[in-house]
Amino acid sequence: MSNVTIETDKPATTHQPNEPERKRTKTAKARKPAKDTQAAKAGKRAKAANAAKKAAQKSAAKPIQKAAHKTAAERSNKKAEVIAMMTRPKGATLDEIVSATGWQKHTVRGFVSVLGKKGEAKVESSKNPSGERTYKIAK
């Protein structure tokens, strides 16, 4: 028989016989950086291209036309302007109100809804023969 000594990575424990043995806690391993695969590179290029397209669309967006250089007598608030348009015999289409005020379509619909709910005016909504939504204030 030969004398063989085995060395282990574990340190020798030096605990007392009456003392409970402590559990070892795991240490966090360092995370390796992800490799840039062809698919990841293609995804990054696509994101960059989409961002460039969006930036170009924003700069090419149609600017809102506001009434410029009106005198104080010519100016009125948009609410009164929309109500005046809606009191015409034919009423006003959604597109007419949008172009006159510069509001978005959902804003016009919300305004018309509030106008009817608060009892300021009775609003009749219908579609004209061409399929456009028309708002009219009933007298």
Description:
- With 139 residues, the protein is mostly helical.
- The protein has a domain at 78-137: Winged helix-like DNA-binding domain superfamily/Winged helix DNA-binding domain (Arc Repressor Mutant, subunit A, Orthogonal Bundle), CATH 1.10.10.
- The protein contains four helices and three strands, in the order ααβααββ.
- The chain has helices at residues 38-60, 78-86, 94-101, 105-117; strands spanning 92-93, 123-127, 133-137.
- Strand 2 (123-127) and strand 3 (133-137) form a beta hairpin.
- The mean pLDDT is 76.
Q: Which terms summarize this structure?
A:
139 residues; mainly alpha; Arc Repressor Mutant, subunit A; 3-stranded antiparallel sheet; 3 strands
The CA-CA distance between the termini, in Å, is 117 Å
Main β-sheet description: 3 strands, antiparallel
Under the CATH scheme, which class of the domain at 78-137?
Mainly Alpha
Mean pLDDT: 76
String of helices and strands = HHEHHEE
Oligomer: single chain
Question: What's the CATH H-level homologous superfamily of the domain at 78-137?
Answer: Winged helix-like DNA-binding domain superfamily/Winged helix DNA-binding domain
- Counting DSSP E segments of at least 2 residues, the number of strands comes to 3
Global morphology: elongated
Count of alpha and pi helical runs: 4
Radius of gyration: 37 Å
Trace the largest sheet across and list its strands. 1-3-2
Low-confidence stretches: none
Query: Helix share of residues?
Result: 25-40%
The assigned CATH architecture of the domain at 78-137 is Orthogonal Bundle
User: Could you name the CATH topology of the domain at 78-137?
Assistant: Arc Repressor Mutant, subunit A
Residue fraction in strands = 5-15%
Structural class call reads mainly alpha
